[in-house]
Design a protein that fits this description.
The structure is a homodimer.
Chain A: H1 2-14, E1 17-18, H2 19-29, H3 38-50, E2 54-59, E3 67-72, H4 74-89, H5 97-103, H6 110-132, H7 142-171
Antiparallel strand pairs in A: 1-3, 2-3
Helix pairs in contact in A: 1-4, 2-3, 6-7
Chain A binds a DNA duplex through helix 2 and helix 3.
Amino acid sequence: MEQRSLILLGLLMSQSQHGYQINEFIERNLSAITDMKKPTAYATLDKLSQKGYIDIQLEQEGNRPTRKVYSINENGKQYFYQLLLKNLSSPESMNYQGDIGLMFMDFLPIEESLPALQERLSKNKDLLEIIKQTPSHGEESGVNLAIEHKIAMLEAEVSFLEKSIKKLDLTSE
Amino acid sequence: MEQRSLILLGLLMSQSQHGYQINEFIERNLSAITDMKKPTAYATLDKLSQKGYIDIQLEQEGNRPTRKVYSINENGKQYFYQLLLKNLSSPESMNYQGDIGLMFMDFLPIEESLPALQERLSKNKDLLEIIKQTPSHGEESGVNLAIEHKIAMLEAEVSFLEKSIKKLDLTSE
DNA sequence: CGATTCATGTAACGGGTTACATGATTCG
DNA sequence: CGAATCATGTAACCCGTTACATGAATCG
């Protein structure tokens, strides 16, 4: 909830936008950062306006469906800074779903677990390549930092897997 | 759902257990791996038995509340191996909540964002220390691999933050 | 004798996703 | 002229959490 709000408010900090525009942007440019879906975005924008953080203006171009243009207001900016500082100072305390598999690996013979891990490795490498190709956003913007962080974590993942596979391979001989 | 099932089935692979026992184990020993709560575990165990993956035996010691002892059956073992292989071969495709903050960092003056990041760093270091103190489970078990993975990722997080803070610090001078 | 442990759950709620609905417009 | 794009939503559902309920046994 709060993460969703932070994203939406952050996007509105740059400029007022309507929902469709926001959703397009998220899908096209933020897929590496968030997986927020359209109905969630629309619903969250509604809540934010109900709570008085953003204002709505109706707009219409020609005969197109009317669109709701959302603008962050003073109240919303305060809230945004609050959420932002909280986010920046919070550690990443997450659980990796992949750890579950590792934990039970011993129940499989190495002939099965090793190829599986190799598949995991190669898929992670693919992800890494894809994300490395996302265009850079100016010199040293926050957006870039976020992308660099994701890359750093993926690289850590890859090198961990390579190390582990090597070790497993040795013990199997 | 599937992650929860994988954990529970995996725990039952070692030995038949009752719900309370399982929940205790998760709380005490798997807090670094999963955050599954008791009601979720009980409910998932129910579902697994309904689907015919585990069997239930009622037991009573003295006047203690009767307990349900769950045992994984042949069917369940098949399912377990299936989930395990899928997990082992899947890449970690996750979104870091912390990336959201990074993305919008530019909206704050460095005097505010820098201390926030430093706080994030120090909290991550604390987490790292705590997890490094979890006792080792024999030579090279899967459980250890999982812990080592978590440590590796936390170390990557820490070094990324250190690097970024240093860079920010320089540009602020 | 009060607090903690043992043991299992239910009910309500929250957050988010999927699938569906609508209807005009522009593109090929 | 059919398909994709523009634009916004609703309804049903799923997964999981929090808070609550129960009651005996053991520990300090």
